[in-house]
Design a protein that fits this description.
The structure holds two protein chains of two kinds. By secondary structure, chain A is of the alpha+beta class. In chain A, 29% of the residues lie in helices and 24% in strands. Among the domains of chain A are: 21-28 and 485-631, 2-Layer Sandwich (Aldehyde Oxidoreductase, domain 4); 372-466 and 637-786, Aldehyde Oxidoreductase, domain 4 (2-Layer Sandwich), CATH 3.30.365.10. Chain B has three domains: 7-52, Uridine Diphospho-n-acetylenolpyruvylglucosamine Reductase, domain 2 (2-Layer Sandwich), CATH 3.30.43.10; 69-171, Uridine Diphospho-n-acetylenolpyruvylglucosamine Reductase, domain 3 (2-Layer Sandwich); 179-281, Enolase-like, domain 1. The chains are: A alpha+beta, B alpha+beta.
Chain lengths: 791, 282
C-alpha cells in the first residue's frame, strides 16, 4: 500500500483547494440560463401528453394570437430545416435499426414528452402560457411500455421498422455449453436494473445568439460535449462548421445526461437564424424528467457455472435493454459498454453474452454515470453473493478464490479486454480492517439468534471498471463514429503565465484545479499561474469532451505531453541563450541550469519572454513557447476497489438503515486527493440512490408517474451514513502519470454493496433477492413472499 | 414548473384579507408560507387568479396564553412553533411534530395555518391537531367561527373553511404533566411526506393508561384517529398496547401510491402505532 508522495515543490498528490469554488460558491457562476443576450426571445416547447399518437392536426395559430408571442412552429413547418435526422453515433451491429428522429415530431409522437410544437415569445411566461393555445388532434395509437410485450411485435413503436427489436448483439468465448453441462453448481438469476432519472442539479438550457449579417451563431448549451454539439448541429442543420461556435459555460452536473446531442440545440440554432434574434430555452425539472435521457432500464438474465469448491467456470449473460422510443446519441451502445465488465475481476474460462435492444413508448435511455458498467458490476457482484450463499461460503472467500491475483497482470479477460494492473488483495484487506468485518459478522449472528426485529447485513462489492474512453482504434472496431483521443495546447504567455487549453469540458469535476496541478509541476510554474481554458469551440478547436472518466486519463495526459513539448522547446532556447549544450542543462523547479555552473540559469518565464521577443532564437526554432499534443490511449485503464456496506434492515417496516460504509478504491496515482474523495462520495451517494430510493415509473399508458422530485426520491446527506474512504495505489502502466480515473467508481461499486447488504440481512428468512429500489414496500413484500404470506 | 398568470394582493390586516377574498370569491387563494401552494401552482394543478398575501399581517403571528389553551397565530412558522417557550412548556407534542415537518427551509417559511388550511392528510400537523382536539378559528364576512379539528378536515385537500374565510388562529389545549407523546414518522427519504405517521398521546394515571389518543397521517383522504385502538386502551395497562395497536388501521381507507400499497400502509399503521404508544407510555 502506498500513498501518493508529493515532493516539497510539486503539487500533484497534494490537496489543492479548487480554483473553481470561490466563484461557484459565491454566485458568480455563469450558467446557460443566466445568459440573457439583449433582445432575447424565449422558446417553449409543447410536449406530447400521450405516449403514442398520430398528429392529425397541429395548429399553432391560436398560440400566435396570444400576447407576447412572436412566432410558433409545428414539426411540419420545420421539416425542411433539417439536413439530416438526429444522429445515432454508435452502430453496434449490422442489423441495428435507426428510426428517423427529428427535433420536432412531424406526423407521429412516440413518447410522453416528444416535441409537438414550438412557441417563441417575449418572455418565458408568455411562451409557457401560449403552449396551452396550440390545438392538437392526437389520434391515439396503441402504446407499448414493457419490453417483453414489445418483443412480441404486436404493437409497434415504429411501424415502418416492422419490429421493436433494435438490435441483437452476441459474443461468446470459451466452451460455454460444455462448461455449463459439466458444472457441479449452476446458479441462475434475473435482476432488474430499474429506469433512473439522472437529475443533474442544473437542468438543460440552450441559448443561441446569431449574427444575422454573417450567418454566424454562438450556441451556449448546458452540455458535457460542446465539440460533439458543434459537429452534430452542423450535420443536422447543414450549417458550415466555421459559422458555429459552441460554448458550454458553467455546467451544473451531467452524469451522462448531458453527454448527448438534443433536439433543442439544432432547434434553437435554426430558429435564431430564421428570426434573427437571440433565443433562450431552459427546461423545468418536470420537463427535464420527460425530455432528457433516462438511465439504466435493463433486464439481466444470468447464469454462473461453478465447482463445488467455489471455482467459477462459466458465465452466461442475456440482456434486454430498453432504448425508449428513439435512439439518442449513444443509446444502443450503453448496455454493450457494460458487456466487457460482466466477468468483473474473476477468472472465467467460458462466457456468453447476448443483448437485445428494444424500442418502447418511453423517453430514450442513454449514458448515466457508469453507462453499462454499474449494471454489469451489479449483476456479477450480486451473482457472486448468491453463489456464495448457494455454496455456503463467505462471499469474500468466494471472491478471493476467483479473482485475478495481483501478480497476474496484465490479464486478458474472457470478455476480451486486457486489465492493466491492480491489487484486489490489498484493497480488500484494507476495507475489511476499516469495517471491522469479523465483529459485524458476530453481531449479525447474535441478531439472528435473538430474532431481533432489526437484522444486520454486510454487503460486499469488489469491482473494477474500464476508464479512459477510449483507444480510437477500439472505438472504430465497435462501430462508433468518432475517436477517443484528447487534445491539449499549452502556452507560456509573454509574462510567464501558463495557458492550458483542453478539449475536455468539465461540469463540476474540478478540471481547472487538477489540470493546473499537472501543468504547474511539468512546467515548473506556480499553481496559481496556470489558467485552464475549456468548453468553447472558439478557443478550443479540438476536443472530444468529458464522459467515461476520460478527462484526466486521456485529457490530462495530453496536457502533460504538451507541457513536456513546451519544456523541450524551452530547453533548446535556453541552451542557445546560455550558450550551453542542451544535454548540459537541467530543469529544476522551473529553471534551466547549466550543470556545474549554478549562476548560469534561466527561468521558464525568462525563456518565454525571450521566445516571444524572438530576437535570438536558434535556427529553425519558431517564436513563442507553445505546443500541442493529442493523446490517443493504447488501452483502457482499470481502477478497482472493495466497498463494504453494513445495513440494518427493520423486518417489521422494511426500512433500510445504512450503518457504515467503507470504500477502498485504487484509482492509480492521485493528482488531488480531495477531488478524488469528492468523486467517491458523490458516486457512492448516487449508487445508493439506485439501490434504495430511485425509480422512474411509467403507467401502462406510457405516462411518467414519477414526474417531479415529489415522487422521484433522490437521497440527501440525511439519508446517508458517514463514508469511510481510503485508497490503495497501483499506478496505471499505460500513461506517464499512472492515473486511472475516478468519475464513476463510487456509483459502480456502491449499488451492489448496498443491495448485497440488504439481502444478506434477510437471507436466513428465505429472501434471496430484493428488487431495486430496496424501498420499505419492496423489502417488506420480499420478506412476506419468502415467508409464504404473498406480497 | 411555470405557474399560470395570477394577480397578487398584499394585505396588512385580517379585515383586508377577508375583503380581498370577498371581492374575488373562489378565484382567490390566501398565500401564507407558500410551501404547499406554490409547488401546486408551478405544476399548474392550482391556478388561482389572485393570491392574497397575509405575510405582513402581524396579528396572525405568534403564540399567546389563553388560560387552558394556547392560541397560535396562523402565520406562525413551524420553526417558531418548535422554538416557542409556551408551546414547549404546555404543548410540547406540537413543538416536536413541527420540528419534523418538511426540511429546514420549509420550517422557516411554512406556517402552521398554511399547513392546516392546505389540509393534506400526508402532512404531519393535521393528524396532530386532530389528536390534540384543537380548535380552528376562522374569520369571514359573517364574523368569527370556531371549528373543531374533527370537523375541519373534510376531504382530500379540502377543509371546512369557506371561500371567504381566513384561518386566523389555532387553539390547542395545554397538556398537564401526566401527558406523554411520541410521533413515529415513516418516510421514503429523510425529507419527504410521511408514507404513514402515527402520533400517540397518552395520559397516564397510577400506572394505567387513563386516555390514549392516536392521530394517523396519510392513512385516509383526511387525517384520522385510530378510534378502536384508543378505545381498547382507555383504562388499560401498558401490556394492552400490542393488541390495541393491531386495531390501528381499522375503519381507515389507506391510499395507494408509489411508496406503499393500502395493505402495507395498514401494516405500517399497526407497527408505528405500537411503537409510538410504547414510546409514549414507556
Amino acid at each position: 500500500m502506498t500513498a501518493t508522495e508529493a515532493s516539497a515543490t510539486t503539487t500533484v498528490g497534494r490537496v489543492q483547494l479548487r480554483k473553481e469554488d470561490a466563484r461557484l460558491l459565491t454566485g458568480q457562476s455563469r450558467w446557460t440560463d443566466n445568459l440573457a443576450p439583449p433582445g432575447s426571445l424565449h422558446v417553449a416547447i409543447l410536449r406530447s401528453p400521450v405516449a403514442h399518437a398520430r398528429l392529425a392536426r397541429v395548429d399553432v395559430s391560436p398560440a400566435l394570437a396570444q400576447p407576447g408571442v412572436v412566432a410558433a412552429f409545428t414539426g411540419a413547418d420545420l421539416a425542411d430545416a433539417w439536413a439530416a435526422p438526429m444522429p445515432s453515433a454508435w452502430q453496434v451491429s449490422d442489423d441495428m435499426i435507426v428510426p428517423p428522429h427529428y427535433p420536432v415530431a412531424i406526423d407521429e409522437v412516440r413518447y410522453v414528452g416528444d416535441a409537438v410544437a414550438v412557441v417563441v415569445a417575449e418572455d418565458r411566461h408568455a411562451a409557457a402560457d401560449a403552449l396551452e393555445h396550440v390545438d392538437v388532434d392526437y389520434e391515439p395509437l396503441p402504446v407499448v411500455t414493457d419490453m417483453d410485450d414489445a418483443l412480441r411485435d404486436e404493437t409497434l413503436v415504429h411501424a415502418d421498422a416492422g419490429t421493436n427489436r433494435c438490435y441483437l448483439y452476441g459474443y461468446e468465448a470459451g466452451e460455454v455449453d460444455r462448461v455449463f453441462d459439466d458444472a457441479e453448481v449452476v446458479v441462475e438469476r434475473r435482476y432488474i436494473q430499474q429506469r433512473l432519472l439522472p437529475t443533474a442539479i442544473e437542468p438543460r438550457a440552450v441559448v443561441a445568439q446569431p449574427v444575422p449579417a454573417t450567418g454566424e451563431v454562438t450556441l451556449y448549451s448546458a452540455t458535457q460535449v460542446p465539440h460533439f454539439v458543434r459537429v452534430f448541429a452542423c450535420l443536422v442543420t447543414g450549417m458550415p462548421e466555421h459559422n458555429l461556435r459552441v460554448i458550454a459555460p458553467d455546467v451544473g452536473g451531467g452524469f451522462g445526461s448531458k453527454l448527448d446531442f438534443y433536439a433543442e440545440e439544432p432547434l434553437l440554432l435554426v430558429l435564431a437564424r430564421r428570426l434573427g434574434r437571440p433565443l433562450r430555452w431552459a427546461e423545468t425539472r418536470s420537463e427535464n424528467y420527460l425530455a432528457t435521457i433516462h438511465g439504466r432500464d435493463l433486464v439481466q438474465n444470468l447464469a454462473v457455472a461453478a465447482d463445488r469448491d467455489g471455482t467459477v467456470r462459466g458465465l452466461r449473460v442475456d440482456l434486454t435493454a430498453d432504448m425508449g422510443a428513439y435512439l439518442q446519441l449513444l443509446t444502443p451502445s450503453i448496455p454493450l459498454l457494460g458487456r466487457y465488465m460482466y466477468p468483473g475481476i474473476y477468472r472465467f474460462e467460458a462466457h456468453a453474452f447476448r443483448c437485445t435492444g428494444v424500442f418502447t413508448n418511453k423517453t430514450p435511455t442513454d449514458a448515466y454515470r457508469g453507462a453499462g458498467r454499474p449494471e454489469a458490476t451489479f449483476a456479477i457482484e450480486r451473482l457472486m453473493d448468491d453463489l456464495a450463499a448457494e455454496l455456503g461460503m463467505d462471499p469474500l472467500e468466494l471472491r478471493r478464490r476467483n479473482w485475478i491475483p495481483h501478480e497476474q497482470f496484465p490479464y486478458e479477460t474472457i470478455a476480451g479486454l486486457t486489465y492493466d494492473s491492480g491489487n484486489y488483495e490489498a484493497a480488500t484487506d484494507r476495507a475489511l480492517e476499516l469495517l471491522g468485518y469479523d465483529d459485524l459478522r458476530r453481531e449479525q449472528q447474535q441478531r439472528r439468534d435473538d430474532d431481533d426485529p432489526v437484522q444486520l447485513g454486510i454487503g460486499v462489492s469488489t469491482y473494477t471498471e474500464m476508464c479512459g474512453l477510449a483507444p480510437s482504434r477500439w472505438l472504430g472496431e465497435t462501430g462508433y463514429a468518432a475517436g477517443g483521443w484528447e487534445a491539449a495546447t499549452v502556452r507560456v504567455t509573454p509574462l510567464g503565465k501558463a495557458e492550458v487549453v483542453t478539449g475536455t469540458s468539465p461540469h463540476g469535476q474540478g478540471h481547472v484545479t487538477t489540470f493546473s496541478q499537472i501543468a504547474a509541476d511539468a512546467l515548473g510554474v506556480p499553481f496559481e499561474d496556470v489558467e485552464v481554458v475549456h468548453g468553447d469551440t472558439g478557443r478550443v478547436p479540438w476536443g472530444l469532451d468529458t464522459y467515461g472518466s476520460r478527462s484526466l486519463v486521456v485529457g490530462g495526459i495530453a496536457i502533460h505531453g504538451a507541457c513536456h513539448r513546451v519544456v523541450d522547446k524551452a530547453r533548446t532556447v535556453a541552451a542557445h541563450l546560455l550558450e550551453a549544450a542542451e544535454d548540459d542543462l537541467e530543469f529544476v523547479e522551473g529553471s534551466f541550469r547549466v550543470r556545474g555552473s549554478p549562476e548560469a540559469s534561466m527561468s521558464i518565464q525568462e525563456v518565454a519572454f525571450a521566445a516571444f521577443g524572438a530576437h535570438s532564437l536558434p535556427d529553425g526554432v519558431e517564436p513563442n513557447l507553445t505546443a500541442d499534443h493529442v493523446f490517443d490511449p493504447d488501452e483502457f485503464s482499470f481502477p478497482h476497489g472493495t466497498h463494504l456496506c453494513a445495513a440494518e434492515v427493520d423486518t417489521q417496516t422494511g426500512a433500510v438503515h445504512l450503518r457504515s460504509y467503507v470504500a477502498v478504491d485504487d484509482v492509480g496515482r492521485v493528482v488531488n486527493p480531495q477531488i478524488v474523495e469528492g468523486q467517491v462520495h458523490g458516486g457512492i451517494a448516487q449508487g445508493v440512490g439506485q439501490a434504495l430510493f430511485e425509480e422512474a415509473v411509467y403507467d401502462e399508458d406510457g405516462n411518467l408517474v414519477t414526474g417531479s422530485l415529489i415522487d422521484y426520491h433522490i437521497p440527501s446527506a440525511a439519508d446517508l451514513p458517514h463514508f469511510t474512504t481510503d485508497r490503495t495505489e497501483t499506478p496505471a502502466p499505460g500513461n506517464p502519470l499512472g492515473v486511472k480515473g475516478v468519475g464513476e467508481a463510487g456509483t459502480i461499486a456502491s449499488t451492489p454493496a448496498v443491495v448485497n447488504a440488504v439481502v444478506d440481512a434477510l437471507r436466513h428468512l428465505g429472501v434471496d433477492d430484493v428488487p431495486m429500489p430496496a424501498s420499505p414496500q419492496n423489502v417488506w413484500s420480499a420478506i412476506r413472499t419468502a415467508q409464504g404470506g404473498g406480497a | 414548473m411555470i405557474p399560470a398568470a395570477f394577480d397578487y394582493v398584499r394585505v396588512d390586516s385580517v379585515e383586508e384579507a377577508i375583503g380581498a377574498l370577498a371581492e374575488h370569491g373562489d378565484e382567490a387563494k390566501i398565500l401564507a408560507g407558500g410551501h404547499s401552494l406554490l409547488p401546486l401552482m408551478k405544476l399548474r394543478f392550482a391556478m388561482p387568479e389572485v393570491l392574497v398575501d397575509v405575510g405582513r399581517v402581524a396579528a396572525l403571528k405568534g403564540v399567546s396564553d389563553a388560560g387552558d389553551e394556547l392560541v397560535i397565530g396562523a402565520m406562525t412558522t413551524h420553526h417558531q412553533v418548535t422554538r416557542d417557550p409556551l408551546v414547549r412548556d404546555h404543548c410540547g407534542v406540537l413543538a416536536d411534530v413541527a420540528a419534523v415537518v418538511g426540511d429546514a427551509q420549509v420550517r422557516h417559511r411554512g406556517t402552521i395555518g398554511g399547513a392546516t388550511a392546505h389540509g393534506d392528510a400526508a402532512g404531519d400537523l393535521p393528524a396532530t391537531l386532530l389528536a390534540l382536539e384543537a380548535t380552528m378559528v376562522a374569520h369571514g364576512r359573517s364574523g368569527l367561527r370556531e371549528i373543531a379539528a374533527a370537523d375541519f378536515f373534510v376531504g382530500h385537500l379540502t377543509t371546512a373553511l369557506g371561500d371567504d374565510e381566513v384561518l386566523t388562529e389555532i387553539r390547542v389545549p395545554k397538556l398537564d404533566a401526566d401527558w406523554a407523546w411520541h410521533y413515529e414518522k415513516f418516510s421514503r427519504v429523510a425529507q419527504a411526506w410521511a408514507i404513514v405517521g402515527s402520533l400517540a398521546l397518552v395520559r397516564r394515571s397510577n400506572g394505567t393508561i387513563e386516555q390514549a389518543r392516536v392521530g394517523l397521517t396519510h392513512m385516509d383522504a383526511v387525517p384520522v384517529r385510530a378510534s378502536a385502538t384508543e378505545a381498547a386502551l382507555a383504562g388499560a395497562s401498558a401490556e394492552a398496547i400490542t393488541a390495541a395497536a393491531e386495531q390501528a388501521a381499522e375503519a381507515t381507507s389507506p391510499p395507494e401510491d408509489l411508496s406503499a400499497t393500502p395493505e402495507f400502509r395498514a401494516h405500517l399503521a399497526r407497527v408505528l402505532t405500537r411503537r409510538a404508544l410504547e414510546a409514549a407510555a414507556g
